[in-house]
Amino acid sequence: MQTPVLILTALAAGALRAAQGPIFSRSALHAGGAVPAAILAFSVGLGALLAIGLLGGAGLPRPGGIAGMPAWIWSGGLIGTAVVLLTIHAVPRIGTASFVSAVVCGQLIAALFYDHVGAFGMTPRRIGWSEIAGAVLLLSGVFLIAGNRQG
């Protein structure tokens, strides 16, 4: 895919990601709590991935590849679980906009660091003052969005 298409697709993914908080929070009311709602969400996701993998020809994970991967890679699934549970707890209390702005800001600050040092085996991408300024402005936006909310 071309860069503009990827950027637009990422923007759409961000819009859908913002919808997850209210959706997860509502499912917790029906499912019986945060953990049952997270189990439901991951079950639906697993079902969709199995269908895509099997019907689309991508297949299932290779056991040999999984057995040989570094242990830290397993943390990706744990991070996803923690984020879903935090989303379920935080969104009803602080609101979708406050939560998403804080998450996006945290993602950006961490991403700048990860890019700069080439974390997780990625190619280093040096950050400059414009990226740092953008992160400071985004952090300021978090305080403007979330700072005056009562919750």
Give a description of the structure.
Helix 1 (3-31) crosses helix 2, helix 2 (34-55) packs across helix 4 and helix 5 (96-117) packs antiparallel against helix 6 (129-146). 77% of the residues lie in helices and 0% in strands. It is built from six helices and no strands. The relative contact order is 0.09. It starts with a helix and ends in a 5-residue tail after the last helix. It has helices at 3-31, 34-55, 63-67, 75-94, 96-117, 129-146. It is mostly helical and 151 residues long. The chain has two domains: 1-94, no CATH class; 95-151.
Helix count equals: 6
Give the oligomeric state of the chains in this entry, treating copies of one chain as homo and distinct chains as hetero. Answer: single chain
Give the distance, in angstroms, between the N- and C-terminal Cα atoms. 42 Å
Radius of gyration: 18 Å
User: What is the H-and-E element order?
Assistant: HHHHHH
Mean pLDDT: 92
Uncertain stretches? none
Strand content: under 5%
Largest sheet: none
| Total beta-strand segments | 0
Which structural class fits the helix and strand makeup?
A: mainly alpha
Number of domains as seen in the coordinates = 2
> Which descriptor suits the 3D outline?
globular
Q: Report the helical percentage.
A: over 70%
Main attributes?
151 residues; mainly alpha
Question: What is the element layout, followed by pairings?
Answer:
Elements: H1 3-31, H2 34-55, H3 63-67, H4 75-94, H5 96-117, H6 129-146
Helix pairs in contact: 1-2, 1-4, 2-4, 4-5, 5-6
